[in-house]
Each structure stands twice: as structure tokens, then as C-alpha cells.
């Protein structure tokens, strides 16, 4: 290691003499250094005779300011400063880089992640603290950004739903069983959207660090609020008895079958042992499986020409939830530390068991005149498609038993989200996203598709 300085030797000696401990030695030091041919050796002898604190001071001074004066005895001072035994002495003349080794090693800086993230997930690019997270451009994750623009283009509000004809159907065309089923489904939806938002606010939005994903989560939170408002508005419109309204609005506490589904979702929010990837799969199951059977039951009413306001809002909400599920699968594909396929399968199949029980036993779809076995098959079909989207193999190998759900199933039909469902897609938003991402080959929303509705 080479040291150079323009500081004269006399300046170094003066710095030593100014130390309080060396005051009484100044005359002696002056005498020796002026009358000897070896001032460096003299200085070394004096330092050995001084107090330990003076040794530390002197060694620091020599190392930091005047090491060029002592090229042959630097090792001695390093030993004095760090208490190296004589047996550990190394020649710095032969190995000049070893001088650096005398300094304490700097600790390796750990990658910063949210407190809820496991240590072995710290290498996830999506989860690492991102100093550029406050600025969007330049876009780095174009697929994730495209998802956000797709959600933005599909914005709608509760005020746009026309419920004027629904009340007539509710009072005159639905029987008591059908009213009971629909009211409880709406109660489940009203509570579930709040749970999804709780997870987004409490966990995912703070854990994911890339701005493209945070944009999507921010928009999803807003849309979940609109969903919850819509379901609450539907209950408020159909149910006139105040006590019954209160019962439905508090479904998590008052209706056991809804409570069980809510508990399963809530445990993933509070679970401190699960990884981000596991929770991502769990909430993909909440939005992709827990909602699927209920969506199908409401679309069954549309097939019968009933409740146009309810069924249209259901179409918009199912589109949104399908996009949210697809987004979870997209983020999952960007993770390096994914759970095992067996664990992913277990999370999904557990959700299937709960959903089957909910719609065939606790709140049987037979109340609407739907076949319970076909409902089970449909739930399995949706679960298989979600498993494939997460990189797993199919478990149930079920086919879609409901032809009216062919273009609405939540398995990830992206072309469904390209359509202008009820003209509720903002013009030009997707085109700007495609231009920004440079995705010139992407299929436009009005392109011909073999599974288009005719």
C-alpha cells in the first residue's frame, strides 16, 4: 500500500508534543530528536514508555497522518493498536494490502424489506426497499403496468347501476327461497370486499415496493370500496325491514357460513409465519374461488331474465375480481422464492372445500333451482384454471358445466377484460399503455376472437 503526503516530519512531531500526556516529555523528546540520526526510532522508544492511552493516540496519528514516515515499522504500530500477538505479525513490506486487513471489517449491508417479510425473501426484487418507488417513470415492469392501465380503463361507480326494474322482480318474480339466497350472497360480498381491502392496506401495499404494483393496489382498493358500496346499496334497496338489514350488514358475526369463509381469509392477514408468496396465493383463492360460485348463481338469474341491475353490477364486479386474480398470478410469476407446488395446491384445495360447503350445504344453490353437483364441478373447474395460472398441474380436471359462464369464469381469460362490457371501459387508456410499453403486437380490445359473443 502506498502512502504519500506533503506534510513535513516536523509537523508530525509537533502534533505528538501537543498531546497533554507528552507535555512533561517535550524537553526530552526535543533533545533526543535533535541529537540523533534516528528520530523515528527515538519516537518509537518514547511511545513505548508512555501510558496506554498515549499509545492509542500515537498509533492512530501514525496510521492516519504520517505513515509515510515509518515504512519499515508500520507493523509494530498496527500490533499496538489492535493487540495482535507477536506470533500473528505479518510483513507489510511483502504484503502491502494486509494493512487494510488490520481495520475492522465493515458489516455487509442487509437488504431492507418490510418488517412482515421473511429474511429469506429479502432478495425478492418486488419486496426490496426501492428508493425510486416514489416516481413512476421509467416503467420497468411493463406487464404489471399494463394490468394497472387495464384496471384504470374499467373504472365505474355505483351510481351508474340502474336498479329501477329490480325491485319489481324482487317483489313479484322471486320466491322466498330465491330472496333468501340472494340476500345472503349479497351479505357475503359486502363483507368480503372489506376483508380484501384490509389485506391490501395492512399488508400487500406496504410490502410490495415497485411503483407499478403499488399503482394497481391503490386502484384495487378504490374499486373494492365501490364493490362494497354497490352490494350495500343492493341490500338497502331490496331489504326494507331494518332489523333484517342490520342482520345482513353484520353477516360476519351473524351468519356462521359466512363467518367461516371470513375467518379463512382473515387468518392470512394476521399470520406472521406465512410468506408473502403464500399470502398472495391465498388471496388469489379468495377472489378467484370464494367469489366464483356466488357470481355464477347471480348470472343464473340473468339467464332467466331477472334482476337486470343486480346482474349488470355482477358482470362489472366479476370482471374486476377476475382482473385482480390475474394480477395476483402475474406477481406470483415474478417471485424468486415461491412456495412448493404441494403447498400451493393445498391452499387452493382448502378454499375449494370451503366454497363447496358454502354453496351446496350452508347456503344451497338449489334454492335458486341450480344443480348442486354442477355447482361443485364449476368450482373445481375454476380452481383448476387458477392452479394452472400459478404454475401447477390441474387437480380436478373438471370442465365448465355452465355455458352461460363461458366468458365470465375467473380462470384468467384476459380477452374478457379487453371487451367493453356495457361500454364501461374508458377510451384511449389501454392504447396509451400499449404505446408506453412498446407492445405493438398486443391484440386490440375490438379484435376478432374465436370465443367472442355473437
TrEMBL record:
<dbReference type="GO" id="GO:0009263">
    <property type="term" value="P:deoxyribonucleotide biosynthetic process"/>
</dbReference>
<keyword id="KW-0560">Oxidoreductase</keyword>
<protein>
    <recommendedName>
        <fullName>ribonucleoside-diphosphate reductase</fullName>
        <ecNumber>1.17.4.1</ecNumber>
    </recommendedName>
</protein>
<comment type="similarity">
    <text>Belongs to the ribonucleoside diphosphate reductase small chain family.</text>
</comment>
<feature type="transmembrane region" description="Helical">
    <location>
        <begin position="37"/>
        <end position="58"/>
    </location>
</feature>
<dbReference type="GO" id="GO:0004748">
    <property type="term" value="F:ribonucleoside-diphosphate reductase activity, thioredoxin disulfide as acceptor"/>
</dbReference>
<keyword id="KW-0472">Membrane</keyword>
<dbReference type="InterPro" id="IPR030475">
    <property type="entry name" value="RNR_small_AS"/>
</dbReference>
<keyword id="KW-0479">Metal-binding</keyword>
<keyword id="KW-0215">Deoxyribonucleotide synthesis</keyword>
<keyword id="KW-0408">Iron</keyword>
<dbReference type="InterPro" id="IPR000358">
    <property type="entry name" value="RNR_small_fam"/>
</dbReference>
<feature type="transmembrane region" description="Helical">
    <location>
        <begin position="280"/>
        <end position="301"/>
    </location>
</feature>
<dbReference type="Pfam" id="PF00268">
    <property type="entry name" value="Ribonuc_red_sm"/>
</dbReference>
<dbReference type="GO" id="GO:0046872">
    <property type="term" value="F:metal ion binding"/>
</dbReference>
<dbReference type="InterPro" id="IPR033909">
    <property type="entry name" value="RNR_small"/>
</dbReference>
<dbReference type="InterPro" id="IPR012348">
    <property type="entry name" value="RNR-like"/>
</dbReference>
<dbReference type="InterPro" id="IPR009078">
    <property type="entry name" value="Ferritin-like_SF"/>
</dbReference>
<keyword id="KW-1133">Transmembrane helix</keyword>
<keyword id="KW-0812">Transmembrane</keyword>
